Each structure stands twice: as structure tokens, then as C-alpha cells.
Amino acid sequence: MAAASKVKLQDCPVIKITWIDAQADAGWDEPKVDIAHCVTVGFLVGETDDAICVAGTVSDHECNNRISIPKSWILTQQLEETKDEAPISKGKGTKPAKVGRGATAKKVPATTPRRPRKHINGSRRGRYKAKSSGKRLYSVSV
């Protein structure tokens, strides 16, 4: 296999590749012949005589989310034209709401105290539990 050509990552062109891929399945079914038609768009970060490497994210010296596609699987490839970067929109200029300030903020206790319910037999269960009798409910042997 030939060595991959060196490209500065910040100068990588954007490429759109239409290609076919193998498909697999498992289970007891009727046999069928099927292939997947795929489209990949990304930065062209490497190319050999046998394959093209496309990355989804590039930085100055590294790239991430790479896929190497064999050239024999490629149906079409097209270099995409990139325009100069557009400025980031500043939005509508609204300020985020201040939480917990102003006349609309209410003080709410973290928990609301509740009285224990009175059960049919007259005992009160809930927050006021009787102390344990000290008996184990289960035992573990090693």
C-alpha cells in the first residue's frame, strides 16, 4: 500500500463521497443479497492508491471521527466548494432571565413538613417510627 499524502489539516478540502458498504445480519431467514448505499461528507485528510480517509472534525494538528473507504467501493466523489467563514450571529440581543431575583421570585421551603397519617389500627407511621427491636430480618452465611 502506498504511503498517505501529507496534508495540512486546516487546508483540508470538504468532500462528499457516495459509496457502497457490506451488510450483515444474523438469524434464521431466507437468504437475500443486499448492500448499503452510503453518503459520507467530511474533510479529506488522507489518500492512498487503495483508500480515501475522511474525518468529521479537524483541528490544527489532529482529526477525529475518521473513516477509510476503499476506492473500489466508491461510486462518486465530489469536492465541495467552501466559502469564507461567515460571522457568528449575535442573536436578538435578549439577556438571560435572572433566577431568584425580583418581585416574581417566591421563597419555597425545600420540603413541606407533613404529619404522619393515622392508620386503621391507630398507630402513626411515617416520620415517627418506633425503634427497631434489634432482631435481624435475614442472615448471611459465608
Task: Give a description of the structure.
This protein is mostly beta strands. The chain has a domain at 9-23 and 34-80: SH3 type barrels (Roll), CATH 2.30.30. 0% of the residues lie in helices and 32% in strands. It has a 5-stranded antiparallel β-sheet, with no helix packed on it. It is flat and about 85 Å long. 6% of the residues are buried.
Provide a short characterization of the protein structure:
It contains no helices and 5 strands. It is an all-beta fold. It has a domain at 9-23 and 34-80: SH3 type barrels, CATH 2.30.30.
Characteristic key phrases:
142 residues; mainly beta; SH3 type barrels; 5 strands
Write the layout of secondary structure elements.
Layout: E1 14-22, E2 35-47, E3 51-58, E4 63-70, E5 74-80
- Record field, number of beta strands: 5
Main sheet characteristics: 5 strands, antiparallel
Estimate what percentage of residues fall within beta strands. Answer: 25-35%
Q: Could you estimate the helical fraction of the residues in percent?
A: under 10%
**Looking at the chains present, what oligomeric state does this protein adopt?**
single chain
Gyration radius, rounded: 33 Å
Number of DSSP helical runs: 0
Strand order of the largest sheet: 4-3-2-1-5
Question: For the residues shown, what is the average pLDDT?
Answer: 75
Low-confidence stretches: none
**Shape call:** flat
Q: Alpha-carbon distance between the termini?
A: 60 Å
Q: Which architecture name of the domain at 9-23 and 34-80 does CATH use?
A: Roll
